[in-house]
Amino acid sequence: MSKQINVALVGNPNTGKTSVFNNLTGLNQKVGNYPGITVEKKEAIIKLSRNLKAHVLDLPGTYSLNATSIDENVVIELLLNKNDKDFPDVVVVVSDIENLKRNLLLFTQIKDLGLPTILAINMADRMDRKGIQLDIDLLEKRLNTKVNLISARKNEGFDDLKKSIINYQNISLEPCLYASEIDKAYFESLKKAYPNQELYKLWLVITQDVNFGKTNRNKIPAESEFKPKSDSEIKRLQQKETIKRYQFINATLKETLTKDLNLATGLRAKIDRLLIHKVWGYVIFLAILFLIFQTIYDWSSYPMDFIDESFLHLSEFVKQYFPSGMLSDLITEGIIPGIGGIVIFVPQIAFLFLFISILEETGYMSRVVFLMDRVMRKFGMSGKSVVPLVSGTACAIPAVMAARNIESWKERLVTILVVPFTTCSARLPVYLIIISLVIPDERWLGLFNYQGITLMLLYLLGFGTAVVSGWLASKLLKVDFKTYFVVEMPDYKLPIVKNVVYTVVEKTKSFVFGAGKIILAISIILWVLASYGPTEDFSNAKEIVKSQTDTSELTEEELDTKISSYKLKHSFIGYAGRAIEPVFVPLGYDWKIGIAIISSFAAREVFVGTLATIYSVGNDEEQTIRNRMAAEVNPILGGPLFTFASGISLLLFYAFAMQCMSTLAIVKRETGTWKWPLIQLFGMSGFAYVVALIAFQILK
Amino acid sequence: MATIASLKKGQKAIIGEMNSNEIPLKLLEMGCLPGNQVELIQIAPFKDPLYLNINDTFLSIRKETARLINVELINDE
User: Which chain A residues are within 8 Å of B45, Cβ to Cβ?
Assistant: First the structure.
């Protein structure tokens, strides 16, 4: 029987903690959420030796145990709760060699909790180049622990780190310094009030409650003479504690660390000069965005065509070899097109996450935050809002969560409210298919594809609307909170391929399985609704059509099409669609698009799948979704349904409308009330309707 | 009294007493403490925020926060 221990990885942001986790655990990691909150939880079980396994938990990055966000709070809540099933037997603090001084603050705090704490110093491969020397033996002695030099980039030092974890019981539990020295009298009385508790943990509970404003977690025993301090006094003490810790750290590093200052800078300054230049900085940022969107459009069209064709062939194949009947119809007309409608987004989503994770990994994202802060503040947001707005191009859900990094509540709220305007990947398939129908596939000046330019304009429209509505929201919102802004400017680094690949795989997977379930379910429901009808009209469609039309002039095929479309019109979905058709006709849509829009409220990407299902029910021939759409006829105006006018109107409707239940749910979770998601739902969708209406009426 | 906000590009200074409760704790945790050295590396295009090197940590803060932190200039010449 082998033993299993809990290992927790803790560290500052930008120390490569996640790469360390990846190197330790490989691909067998599990990604989920902490119960009740949407903070990502990454864990894995690894084998350390023949009879010792470890459950490794990658905790959110934090600069200290004084948490200011939900993510950081996860770390401290776990470290304070001995009864948690994940409570660590040993903590590994991941730090990076160039920011050791700052990283040690967190280390000393955790060490003072009385847990075995290993210090893993990452990026050791940069030491020579940066002229850094470290006396490990002396450092171990001063910090009372095991210190390991590792390099996640070169995959070095991990065997030694594992050895240290195996021997965790040999690590001293002696703290680095006694926090109680910052106010002896206060801590003395605290100890008297709770004689059985560890002092530093008590202190953290108190400061946490001050930070998060929930002051009655621990009732103070009535008989004690303990006098609680005011919040501002506690804040002073926290400052004092931080200063004291830095004094210890400075003294320790003075003895152990030497740095050749001539080698230390150089590259950073050179790259900075260009990337945050007052003109070139913005030019480069725009160029990078443009490049990303062009590449996504160009590169993903090949795998997408391939996926589209493959699913079509699969349907054909199943139809041929399965006994015909209801089950075969469900599979070939409901399930396979439904799954195809999910898989087809995979290339774009993968490319988008590829670029975003490269921008994050290289350290460029922080420069964008720096460049954009002043500009974004004009629109009621922070430079940090750029990260949510850019990741909003992948999906609004992680983007709304990314707004947590924004310290000021008002700026954060405004960012959350406007993020759904950015063009998320779920809009992309809708855009792509409509653009391919109504915008010519030609090149402007023989260079830029018109379709690509349209897509770029739609992205800019999304950003533009987000920014303008941010300005509006900040004028309307009467929230007055203290704002502040602290951003670390990390060193430039080449992205680690492994990290980028893991991010892409993980995000794409969670999209396919998360959103995929909804899409598949809706496809099946739609198929059922489209394949059955409530009245005689549906069940006797054949006879009715035959009796109504002069069959002699029609071929067999034309008759079949007529029957199918008559059936569809009298199916459940046909009745529902035609009931709401008057709402959508002024925008240039028919009832089929109406149904697709309604089902899009579950998730926008359902649009294409819905049309695929509806059309494949109405049409047996082997055609791609795009060709089926091109052949649709406008029921009122005649002529093709998808014209320039109705296409643009539809594009604008999808650009502005709030059509994502999951986003509404996450906004409710992050803001704590239904007020904001409801404002988004009605405000955005109403605006979308009006704009689409005006566009169609002008262009038609 | 000089503050971080009044530094010029490339100037170095020593951080003085910090008396404001408005200074975020996060800034202290990043090493912005009395006695530590601060260097103004770069000012963003619209004159805000500021790009600093404090105690070997590179970070960026807004002018409104920088104004709260008193410094004493070092004559580097």
Answer: 276, 278, 281-282, 371, 374
| Phi, psi (degrees; rounded to nearest 5) at A428 | -55, -50
Q: Does A66 contact B29 at a Cβ distance shorter than 8 Å?
A: yes
**Using CA atoms, how far apart are residues A411 and A211, in angstroms rounded to an integer?**
19
Q: How do strand B57-61 and strand A117-122 relate by DSSP bridges?
A: unpaired
Residues of B in contact with A98 (CB under 8 A): 56
- Chain B: nearest CA to A576, how far in angstroms? 55
pLDDT per residue as tens, chain B (77 positions): 789 999 999 899 999 877 777 788 888 888 888 888 899 999 998 888 999 999 888 999 999 889 989 998 886 54
Residue A617: the pLDDT is 52
CATH of A3-170, one of 3.40.50.300, 3.40.50.1970, 2.40.160.20, 3.40.640.10: 3.40.50.300
Higher-pLDDT residue of A585 and A30 is: A585
Domain ranges (residues) in chain A: 3-170, 179-257, 265-532+571-700
CATH number where B55 lies? 2.30.30.90
One-letter identity of residue A183: D
Mean pLDDT calculated for residue range A288-300: 77
Nearest CA in chain A to B27: A486
Structure token pair of residue A132: 């850094």
Average pLDDT, chain A: 83
- Would you call B44 and A246 a contact, using CB atoms and an 8 Å cutoff? no
A contact test, residue of B25, B27, B52, B61 with most A CBs within 10 A: B25
Domain count, chain B: 1
Angle (nearest 5°) at CA A106 between A103 and A107: 85
Residue A440 known to bind ligand: no
A-B contacts at Cβ under 8 angstroms: 112
Going by C-alpha positions, the residue among A24, A616, A608, A35 that lies closest to residue A345 is A608
Region A536-561: mean pLDDT is: 74
Task: State the angle between helix axes of A100-111 and A231-256 in degrees (0 to 180), rounded to the nearest 10.
Answer: 120
Q: What is the largest CA-CA distance in chain B?
A: 35
Asked whether the beta carbons of residue A272 and residue B41 sit closer than 8 angstroms, the reply is yes
In B, minimum Cα distance to A368 occurs at: B44
Residue B15 to chain A, least CA–CA distance (Å): 13
CA atoms A329, A330, A335, A337: torsion sign? positive
A13 in a labelled binding site: yes
Distance CA A74, CA A502 (A): 23
Residue A205 has pLDDT above 90, yes or no: no
Which positions in chain A have a beta carbon within 8 angstroms of at least one beta carbon in chain B?
63-64, 66, 68, 98-99, 101-102, 105, 232, 235-236, 238-239, 242-243, 246, 268-269, 272, 276, 278, 281-282, 366, 369-371, 373-375, 383, 407, 482-491
CA A686, chain centre distance (Å) = 26
Is the CB of residue A365 less than 8 Å from the CB of residue A438? no
Enclosing domain of residue B37: 4-73
- Of the pLDDT bands very low, low, confident and very high (cuts 50, 70, 90), residue A657 is very high
Considering A289-303, A374-388, A606-620, A660-674, the range whose residues carry the highest mean pLDDT is A374-388
B-chain residues near A207 (CB < 8 A) = none
d(CA A93, CA A135): 18
Residues 6+ apart with CB under 8 A from A401: A38, A666, A670
Whether residue B49 and residue A373 make contact (CB cut-off 8 A), yes or no, is: yes
Q: Name the phi and psi angles at B28, rounded to 5.
A: -65, -40
